[in-house]
Design goal:
Shape: rod-shaped
Oligomer: single chain
Radius of gyration: 67 Å
Pfam families: DUF7507 (PF24346)
CATH class of the largest domain: Mainly Beta
Largest sheet: 6 strands, mixed
Number of strands: 33
Keywords: Membrane, Transmembrane, Transmembrane helix
Protein name: DUF7507 domain-containing protein
Helix content: under 10%
InterPro entries: DUF11_rpt (IPR047589), DUF7507 (IPR055354), Ig-like_fold (IPR013783)
Number of helices: 1
Organism: Lentzea aerocolonigenes
Strand content: over 45%
Structural class: mainly beta
Amino acid sequence: VSPKDQGGDNALDSDGEPALASPAYGQTAVFTLGQIQVDRTWDLGVTAAKPAIDVEKYVTGGAATRDDADTPKGPFVPTGATVTWTYVVKNTGNTTLVGIQVTDDDPAVTVSCPQDTTLAPGESLECTATGVAISGQYVNVGTATGTPADDAETPLPGVGPVTDTDPAHYYGASPAIKIVKYTNDQDANEAPGPYVLKDGEVTWKYVVTNTGNTDLNNIKITDDKEGDISCPNAPQTLAPGASFECLKTGKAVEGQYANDGKVTGTPIDGSGSTIPGSGPVEAHDPSHYFGAHPTIKIVKKVNGDDADTAPGPYVPEKSEVTWTYEVTNTGNTKLVDVTVVDTPEGAVTCPAATLAPGESMTCTLTGVAKAGQYENVGKVTGKPVDNGDQPIPGAPEVTADNPAHYFGTAPGIKIVKKTNGDDANAAPGPQVTQGSKVTWTYEVTNTGNTRLTSVAVTDSIEGAISCPKNDLQPGESMTCTKNGTAVLGQYENKGTVEGAPSKADGTPIDGAKKVTADDLSHYLGQAPPLPFTPNGTAKPGQLALTGPPLPLPGIALAGVLLALLGAAGLVLSAARRRRRE
């Protein structure tokens, strides 16, 4: 006895008519052997029970619809998106299958199947399950189980359940990108960032990394201040974990600067196609620098006067001079080691050595005024530092200077008084005939170093003296003249001059007292000689009589003699006084 069509020769064995179907399992049939059916092997046409089941598991998600993803990676599904699994169960055996069950090895996945779980040979049913995609490679396995049964759906004795499994895969896409922006090699996410001298070169570096789990293409870098960033080294596709960098240079502007780097990319699957539901990814990173413009200013004053140009304030010679040095940090960086030096006065003491931007201090130095025009120069220096008191790369010391002037006043005046050209400081002076003309000259000289205005000459006896001018420059002289009539006897008068010390423009010097000088002069007024007329009368052997006859009485003669004695006494007295002097 053999199964139907054993050997493939239906004509000679006991299958009967070839066109007749063999009875199914559990059926009976009668066959009549023909004369030519002499094969001793009887094919009774009985089909043995061969139960079998098949399950095919499909994934729907992302761009995939019912993807039989038996091998990784499977379809790319955005992380967090819904995944649908479809389990297609088919009775691939020759017996009815009852009590079909479909399960998933992931306990979080619940499979839902139709209520009728009986399948005749060749029939199919579908079950479904849903879940939320997780990041990365994912696999779960579906299992289908059924119990073989006869046509009455009664389980076949001695025949165990049949089962089949099928895996399914998807790739949970978590695309991400990162950009790190550096300014002069510093990842300066917060202000102030590196200090860069104004107009100095700034180099921005943009380091882009694929921090997700999918390839990225169409990568573009932009800067909110600098615009599109050209990047010849950028790959067409950036694999997960891969990086590249781009550079951009510019000139530093003054003050705090911030700009933002941005990168975008498109996630793609293994075939290079865009992943549905997963839009472009982007990232930002700020960067900062501080455009340093260190500067300093010094204002030097003399006795409170900002005397940048000569002559400056007029200061009496040998009086105290006070110089102040007003130092201001006019830049935008902190300055340390601030020092002030005066030329030629030397080092200047200051109250501080560190100045914040906009901060000021006043340094002071005192000295003694020297005569004449004086100039000295105050110079300040400072070192720029950043907010951590570190030197700013490439920043030199800042410096400034400011001159100051004063004029050390030493006013002076001199007068030389002469009588008839004779500098007769002491009596008796020149002898002048009573009643004759006397000429006094007053030679006035500005012996100081300032202009003198309101120059006036007076005489102790003669009063105000007229002069050709009332203004004298240093070293200048003038001669004033006064005429008078000589009186009898010893005469003395004194010439006095005064002048007001003034600036070069003729305005009085504040606080300056007038300068004065005086000089004595003398003359001796003599009586004129008596008139006479020679008559030439004389006897031989006698002197001739000259002059008028003297009909003077004795009293008159005595008066003339007394007058002569008085004049002699005055001369003697003047000589004694001169010796005492």
